[in-house]
Write a structure and sequence with these properties.
By secondary structure, this protein is α/β, with parallel strands linked by helices. It folds into three domains: 41 residues; 207 residues, Rossmann fold (3-Layer(aba) Sandwich); 175 residues, Ribosomal Protein S5, domain 2, CATH 3.30.230.10. It is built from 13 helices and 25 strands.
Length: 462
């Protein structure tokens, strides 16, 4: 029998090295951990599976033409939570693996047990595997947040993948939850649970279990101090969908985002409010972000972005103050700092604002980070409003992308955004001229102001 050897594995990226290194190739320091590698002999099942695949039996492996492959259709399971269905692309696909991550206490276990209760009531048996909490703790949470019948919801406090596979084979659930993958381990490996080797091995076992038995599996994962998924990146490549649950623990708003989805779009977001009875869906997210906006406030301008299949209205706040040190500060929350510096340069060069001795602070109310560039005009007007002391109307909305020449570029889905703004009570919308010209049936109660550059936008805003 061959002697087992040891390798050093980076706990951040999964890189393996024969010798210990202080700094990994990914840049992480002191992340190399020594792990044993089991030898693969001729009697090992792993060797038999490789030889049985056609590599040593003389069978020829042939490729298939793409035109000859039949298009497969997949059915989805309704989780009973509309916002979760929206982010997943319409529901859970059978046989899919979904990875959900978030900071401790953000509500990951709450949303999955609510979804598990709904699926158990509609489709049949659901297996909830927990390596962090006891069955009594899960029962207490279930009694608090679940309203339906939990007869078909089965709990298993276990961390061994062999025992989990045996219970799954016997129970044959319609849906399965692993909370969390960092606590699971395979007895075949000597490394501790949560190590790169264990996470990789357990991820492969869960993928095989879900695909072969056609069971959708929810996998909960921890995050690092920087907010990224803990463990090797290979887990993110294995799964079909990667969800991230974010929000401030001292606030009620929770945002569910999708970073990867093989069965749908990644541009959708789901909004929830953490209540005593669990997570409650927020149907009108724009109203939530705009409810604290004051009419006639300096440095506050409303804008809109298009997230997935719905427009989302936001409030941009800006504050300028004389700097007390040699260099002016540029601070942005929700907006890319490089984008903010570009907009400040355009305002100085094209609009004549002298901001070199001004500290500039920009904030997107609600803690959301909008994607795209349609918020450029609102950010610029908010900075102008704060710097000049110009009072902004709470019924005015601005959207558009600003180029380096100071001109305004058109934004997508502008017509749908205008309709949503009209429904929310806005009476004036400043937008690029191209979007105004392309508007087929503008609402009667909204005044559309088309502008070509930042100077025209400032004159119309004033």
């Amino acid at each position: 029998m061959k002697k087992a050897k040891t390798v050093f594995v980076c706990q951040e990226c999964g890189y393996e090295s024969a010798k210990w290194m202080g700094q990994c190739i990914c840049g992480a320091w002191n992340s190399m951990v020594e792990e044993k590698v089991l030898p693969v002999n001729e009697n090992d099942s792993r060797s038999r599976s490789i030889s049985g695949a056609g590599g040593h039996t003389g069978q020829r492996v042939k490729a298939t033409k793409l035109s000859d492959v039949q298009s497969g259709s997949f059915s989805r399971m309704d989780t009973g939570i509309r916002e979760l269905n929206r982010v997943l692309g319409g529901g859970l696909v059978k046989g899919s693996l979904t990875l959900i991550s978030g900071e401790p206490g953000i509500g990951k276990s709450t949303i999955i047990i609510q979804a598990a209760s709904n699926i158990a009531e509609r489709y049949g048996r659901v297996l909830y595997v927990s390596g962090e909490e006891s069955e009594e703790q899960i029962k207490m949470r279930g009694d608090r947040v679940c309203k339906g019948d939990m007869t078909n919801l089965f709990l298993l406090a276990e961390t061994s993948m062999e025992n989990i596979a045996a219970v799954t084979e016997e129970l044959k659930p319609e849906f399965m939850i692993i909370d969390s993958i960092q606590t699971m381990y395979s007895p075949e490996l000597d490394s501790a649970p949560g190590s790169v080797s264990q996470v990789r091995a357990c991820g492969n076992e869960l993928m095989k279990m879900g695909k072969v038995k056609n069971i959708p599996i929810f996998i909960v994962a921890h995050v690092t101090k920087s907010g990224e998924l803990a463990g090797p990146k290979i887990v993110e490549h294995l799964v079909d969908c990667v969800l991230n649950f974010s929000g401030e623990r001292n606030q009620e708003l929770r945002i569910l985002r999708c970073f990867k989805n093989r069965f749908g779009t990644t541009s959708e977001i789901g909004a929830f409010e953490m209540m005593e009875e669990g997570l409650v869906e927020i149907e009108n997210l724009s109203k939530t972000f705009l409810e604290g906006m004051e009419d006639g406030a300096e440095g506050a301008v409303a804008t809109a972005v298009y997230e997935g299949t719905r427009p989302l209205l936001l409030e941009i706040q800006a504050l300028t103050a004389p700097t007390n040190i040699g260099f002016a500060r540029r601070t942005a929350i929700g907006i890319d700092t490089n984008r903010l510096n570009m907009l400040l340069a355009v305002l100085e060069r094209k609009a004549g604002l002298s901001l070199i001795n001004q500290d500039v602070y920009v904030n997107v109310v609600g803690g959301i980070r909008p994607e795209g560039t349609s918020t450029d005009l609102a950010v610029a007007l908010a900075i102008y409003s704060s710097f000049k002391g110009q009072v902004a109307s709470g019924k005015t909305l601005a959207l558009g992308e600003i180029g380096l020449t100071g001109d305004l570029r058109s934004v997508q889905n502008c017509e749908k955004i205008v309709r949503e703004a009209s429904r929310m009570g806005f009476s004036k919308i400043i937008l690029p001229k191209k979007n105004e010209a392309a508007m087929k049936e503008p609402p009667e109660n909204v005044k559309l102001v088309g502008v070509a550059n930042i100077r025209e936008a400032i004159s119309q805003f004033a």
